[in-house]
Design goal:
By secondary structure, this protein is an alpha/beta fold. 30% of the residues lie in helices and 22% in strands.
């Protein structure tokens, strides 16, 4: 008996069931955009060596760095080399990738932002020197960014868009404005349709968002936690709506959740698309002035 066969169904119904499975997978795959898929678990030794030059004395920062090192390495591997202005902007600057943008990737001007008002001086030890940065503070989904049009050739939006409370398209459109024609945006964000989220829904116990916990309140302004996590397809549609041409769009699994991998067979057997079920989504897209912009995509905004 073939995998997934139901013995008490007559042959013609089993054949129809199999055809429906294949149709379901085919239809769901049509919504996925072409992408240059990368192999999960790439060692990326050059990127890791560059990132490990970062000197983090704070135990909490070091623990975060080690936990997220696979994502940081993959992100750094997707950074295109500077070709024109040599200027890069990192939205939501936590200083983990930032020094490598200058010292490893070769960008001559690195800018960083965070939520707040005014400016903030940040510094971190990188290799044998002190990397210093004046971080611009503003509201990424409401304010006009304090940069002229076409100023940067690359904007990084790493683990940021899922924190937007009101208007994620504002972030993308401002990023598009400050990018030069042909400049790129690099986005990383959790995948709400990843295998872990599917498993949590099926179990019916845990929240399907990869990161659904609140931080314990402390002194100072509270960080906005994950407001909305996106499927890979949704992220692609959102980026395209902002007038970008997608070059790479793919997911990768997070090792911490690898025990859910057997669920892939269950999805395939029951007619669901098993591809791009990693917990982490990566997107690289290029600004094209000729592309139309949809200010409020219907799948994300209601009138």
């Amino acid at each position: 008996m073939g995998r997934g066969a139901v013995p008490d169904l007559p042959l013609h119904l089993r054949l129809i069931r199999g055809a429906l499975r294949r149709l379901n997978i085919s239809l769901s795959r049509r919504r996925e955009r072409p992408n240059a898929r990368r192999t999960a678990g790439d060692s990326l030794p050059g990127q890791e060596a560059a990132l490990r030059k970062l000197k983090l004395d704070d135990p909490a920062s070091r623990a975060y760095f080690e936990k997220h090192l696979p994502r940081l390495k993959k992100t750094l591997s997707l950074v295109p080399p500077p070709r024109s202005s040599g200027r890069v902007l990192e939205l939501g600057c936590y200083m983990h990738l930032t020094p490598a943008l200058r010292h490893y990737c070769g960008f001559r001007e690195v800018r960083g932002t965070d939520f707040g008002a005014g400016g903030l001086h940040k510094s971190v030890r990188y290799a044998d020197s002190l990397f210093e940065l004046e971080v611009d503070l503003f509201n990424a989904e409401r304010d006009t960014y304090p940069y002229s049009a076409g100023y940067f050739e690359l904007v990084l939006v790493c683990e940021v868009i899922e924190h937007m409370l009101y208007d994620p398209m504002h972030l993308l459109l401002e990023a598009r404005r400050v990018l030069e024609e042909g400049g790129r945006i690099l986005i990383t964000t959790p995948n709400i349709a990843g295998l872990t989220s599917v498993a949590r829904v099926l179990h019916g116990h845990d929240n399907p968002q990869i990161h659904s916990k609140y931080k314990i309140p402390a002194s100072g302004p509270a960080d906005v936690q994950h407001v909305r996590e996106y499927t890979m397809v949704e992220l692609g549609e959102l980026v395209a709506a902002a007038g970008f041409e997608i070059e790479q769009l793919f997911t990768e699994p997070i090792e911490e959740y690898s025990f859910y991998q057997p669920l892939l067979a269950f999805l395939e057997e029951n007619g669901y698309n098993p591809s791009n079920r990693g917990e982490q989504t990566y997107c690289v897209a290029r600004k094209r002035e000729s592309l139309p912009v949809t200010r409020y995509p219907e799948f994300l905004y209601e009138r």
